[in-house]
Amino acid sequence: MSDLTVTVADRVLEATWTDETPDTRAALEEALPVEGDAVRWGAELYFDVPIDAPPENAREVVPEGAIAYWPAGNKLCLFWGETPASIDGEPRAASPVTVVATLADTAPLADLEGGARVRLERAE
């Protein structure tokens, strides 16, 4: 069972919280639902979120499907493949991010063109 529903344009995806960043997760969970017009950067979308949390187990290289908070810009990021910062094809953020959840399936994002409206909310 998923914890979150992530809507990207007309695509509805499921996601599950990770256990490695409890403080950032709590801050984001309190702010839900969050949504915004995302900017695309390679195979990453990011948008503003109304939280301010310090880095927590932050890293640049993330797994495919990572939903991460970028403390440097107060953004939420969805990664599904290479970004301009990638080396050897791995998803890589521009600077360290805090992974808070993981998408169950990233295939629906593969043909996404440009930015999109993104909404993250509790699964029903």
Q: How would you characterize this protein structure?
A:
This protein has one domain: Cyclophilin, CATH 2.40.100.20. The N and C termini lie close together (10 Å). Strands 1, 2, 3, 4, 5, 6, 7, 8, 9 and 10 form a ten-stranded antiparallel beta sheet that branches. It has 124 residues and is mainly β. It has one helix at 22-31, and strands spanning 4-8, 11-17, 34-37, 39-40, 44-48, 59-61, 66-70, 75-79, 92-103, 117-122. Strand 7 and strand 8 (75-79) form a beta hairpin.
Helix content: under 10%
CATH level 1 class label: Mainly Beta
* DSSP strand content: 35-45%
* CATH level 3 topology: Cyclophilin
Note the main sheet.
10 strands, antiparallel
Cα-atom radius of gyration? 13 Å
Unreliable spans are none
* Beta strand count: 10
Number of helices: 1
**Gross morphology:** globular
Order of helices and strands: EEHEEEEEEEE
Count of spatially separate domains: 1
Span between termini = 10 Å
Give the rounded overall mean pLDDT.
Answer: 95
Main structural class: mainly beta
Q: Do you know the CATH architecture?
A: Beta Barrel
